[in-house]
Amino acid sequence: WEALQMVTGWLKVFRSATTQMSATKQPMLSTTHAIFRGLQRHLKTTIAGLPATADPALKEGLVNAHRKLSDYFTKF
Length: 76
Prior knowledge:
It is a single chain. By secondary structure, the protein is mostly helical. It has a domain at about 30-75. Helix content is about 80%, strand content about 0%. It is built from three helices and no strands. The chain has helices at about 1-20, 30-50, 55-75. It is elongated, with a radius of gyration of 13 Å.
């Protein structure tokens, strides 16, 4: 249950970011940049704060998500 609670929190952050980016008809690059950076910071903080007992698959998923955001970020 603890893992599900953690994942639910992360998904809420990503949902909020998605909603913010799709709220306007013409997304602004500066807004997208800030949202990407915010997501990356959130993931980094979350990874650092994972308990030692956390499922390795959760950590791997978070690290992969952070890398994917970094890949997209460098395309801007």
